[in-house]
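User: Fold this; tokens only.

Assistant: Input:
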Amino acid sequence: MARRGHRPSQAPAGRPRFWGRHAVSAALANPNRTVRKLWGTREALAPFDLPSDLPVVYADVADLGRMVPADAPHQGLVAEVDPLDEIWLGDLLMEGRDDRRPLVVLDQVTDPHNVGAVLRSAAAFDALGIVTQDRHAPPESGALARAASGALETVPWVRVVNLARALDEIAEAGFWRIGLTGHADQTLGQVMGEAKVAIVLGAEGEGMRQNTEAHCDQLAKLPISSKVESLNVSNAAAIALYAAAAR
């Protein structure tokens, strides 16, 4: 795992609360994650071998439901955690220098469910990590952790101040930067080649910003049917990562 450092600017106003079996169990298993407090039903907590210094509160389903957003599927578990510390882009690129794992770059994708789903796909297809901006990306949250289904704890997530500079650094590390956009002339399969790839995706609706497109080596589209105008960004990321893995 790449080196981590303190990132106070990324911490939300309070500690995030995660809920659900996958998100909570992954947080407990992550040595880089500090879990401050755990609430749960006796049945949900029974399988865990919990550290003796972790405050644990037994609660019923109704009490847990009041601790999370309405209708959130907490599955009898809620944890209060500290946000993960920062991962530096240079460290992540150094970690992946000798392999061909793809990288995912998100340009102002702010929906936590989408970012969580991208993290899950990144874990499924063994991506090196994801890169987002620090101010135009969601903070860690229960909704994001739930959508990631544990991948928030295992996939390196780099936040950068300037995405254009980060793309330059990614290119210097030997990655072929492919921006996915519907107005490209060629498909992803036609432009991917054999080099290490960084898949760049923009927000739904707006897509990639012009300056982000200018920092890609190639633009490409997914060969989807004309019956559908576009794909959700997390679906597009999953397809692109599968294509990279299947080369």
